[in-house]
Design brief:
By secondary structure, the protein is of the alpha+beta class. About 30% of the residues lie in helices and about 25% in strands.
Length: about 140
């Protein structure tokens, strides 16, 4: 089942959402937008492959960098934690964006060639087959 097909299977708001989906921009953005909207106030959004995959990183920058709902909490390697409790002030949003932008040097380090290439250069590992997003939904 693809992630957009799973909405009917999950009722109500979500306390903790773990997204580990396709690495391409469009599916990553769709997961952040559609599933992120269902995270309850104060809830947690975990995104795997953050600041390591080009598509996921671009989706994060597009949807969460200047967003009004999710506060960037931190990152452990490529796992990023967001909390749905961002204060509404402009300064809060600017600080939140700055904390996310501070992760870009790690992203650039992860994207540089490191020895023998695997597969075709520039191709995500999931480009050649349909990809089903993995979602975990936890309730309080």
């Amino acid at each position: 089942m693809f992630s957009d097909d799973a909405h009917a299977e999950v009722a109500g708001e979500i306390g903790v959402l773990y997204v580990d989906g396709a690495h391409r921009y469009a599916p990553a953005r769709a997961d952040i937008v559609s599933w992120g909207a269902r995270v309850e106030d104060g809830g947690t959004l975990l995104i795997h492959d953050s600041f390591s995959s080009i598509g996921v990183t671009l989706a994060i920058l597009r949807e969460l960098l200047l967003g009004s709902k999710f506060r960037y909490v931190g990152r452990s390697r490529s796992m990023t934690i967001y909390r749905a409790d961002l204060a509404s002030g402009l300064l809060d949003r600017v600080k939140n964006a700055a904390r996310q932008l501070a992760q870009l040097p790690w992203f650039l380090k992860e994207r540089r060639p490191q020895g023998v290439p695997v597969g075709r250069p520039g191709q995500d590992h999931d480009q050649t087959r349909p990809y089903r997003s993995r979602m975990a939904v936890l309730r309080h």
